[in-house]
Amino acid sequence: MEKLLNVRQAAALLNVSQMTIRRWTNDGLLTCFRIGKKRERRFSEADLHAFLAGRTDPVAGATAAPAPNRPAGRTDGVSLGFANLHIPDGTHLTHLYLDRSEALGIQGFFVRQGLNTGETVMVVAPADQRDTLLDTLARDGIPVQDLIQQDRLIHGTGKQTPEQMIALIARISSSAQSGFRLVGDMSWTTVAGWSLEQTKALEESTNTRLAPGLLFLCQYSLTEFSGAQTMMALETHGFSIYKNKLIRLHF
């Protein structure tokens, strides 16, 4: 019978914190068994290696050389960094979520994957969510401050108008040497006081800029956004993630 690992052993095998292991299992991103009256977590070593195979090696230190540029029109797809999901290069996708911890988990995987492959990564979210993500990455051993200083990891809380935000994304993505990916929790647009029309203008503008080497992930909370806003999100993206399933959209 296969020996099962506890949380500490699983964390050591995946080279992350025990808190991260618990969060990933709570979010349904990492398979675990529950045993005994206390429902303690146990992990199959085979499951952990399969999970690890869906990710890349840990982010290199600040002095590591960046990965080479992605070849145009790569056909094997680009890893999102979780659940072994791959997406066509140059894709604009949305993640619809019910729980903040789920959103944070997806952000963390997505950001790590980009950093691991040498991409420039941009995070846009309300200040408290952004800070939680950066703190989580740092606790997991990611050299956050070094990457920020190198302009490999760029973060912000959004701009006041679509035009300003479009210009910022265009400037950063065009200067990225080894690919660019952006994750935005779109609740930042609510904080900024944007209308539905303004958010839609940003999403539609992103669609006009899609090209190999670019990847955009926009997160929408199903408990914070209206039905009209959620439908707009579905209509302006090529793919959607919901409960760790990737769905191609046909609007």
Walk me through this protein's architecture.
With 251 residues, the protein is of the alpha/beta class. It is built from 10 helices and 12 strands. The chain has helices at residues 7-14, 18-26, 45-53, 100-116, 127-139, 144-149, 162-175, 187-191, 196-207, 227-235, and strands at residues 4-5, 33-35, 40-44, 78-79, 86-87, 91-97, 120-124, 153-156, 180-185, 214-221, 239-242, 245-248. The strands form 3 sheets. A 7-stranded mixed β-sheet has the order 8-7-9-10-6-11-12, with helices on both faces. Strands 1-3-2 form a 3-stranded antiparallel β-sheet. Strand 4 and strand 5 form a beta hairpin. Helix 1 (7-14) crosses helix 2 (18-26) and helix 7 packs parallel to helix 9. The N and C termini lie far apart (49 Å).
Write out key terms for the chains shown.
alpha/beta, three-stranded antiparallel beta sheet, seven-stranded mixed beta sheet, 251 residues
